[in-house]
Amino acid sequence: MKSARLLAMGLVVSGLVACASTRPVLYPNTHYLSVGKNVAERDIEDCIQLAKAAGARESGGRSGNVASSTVIGGGAGAASGAVGGAITGSPGTGAMVGAASGATYGFLRSILSPARSSQPNPAFANFVNRCLQEKGYEVTGWQ
């Protein structure tokens, strides 16, 4: 039971890290160099808050991908665990262990896969990019 609690806490912490938002990367043009990094960071935050106030969602849907990968992994693990458990005479235990293992695998795969790196919602990114451009910055991308 204690190891299950530790696993659950680890999954929650990992999920929070995985959901950390991306931010725009600014090209050091004349405006950026004249105002400095601190002012530029405040301007980025102001544009992010303005986008949120306008109704743009920051998330690009990654949390849904993480949840579905976890559920799919859990289902596949439960099925394979039940089969393995049936062979050894304990299908219930096998399904339970398989579900936990599959869910963990699906969760970790979805948050650690470089192909599924977190990207902002396109409408949100476009809003922030335009706001920063109107302030004199050049956005080179998001990370």
TrEMBL record:
PROSITE patterns: PROKAR_LIPOPROTEIN
The protein's name in its UniProt record: Glycine-zipper containing OmpA-like membrane domain-containing protein
Key word Nucleus present: no
Organism: Nitrosomonas halophila
Signal peptide stretch: 1-20
Keywords noted in UniProt: Signal
Domain of life, source organism: Bacteria
Keyword Signal recorded: yes
Record domain Glycine-zipper-containing OmpA-like membrane: where: 67-109
Pfam family, one: Gly-zipper_OmpA
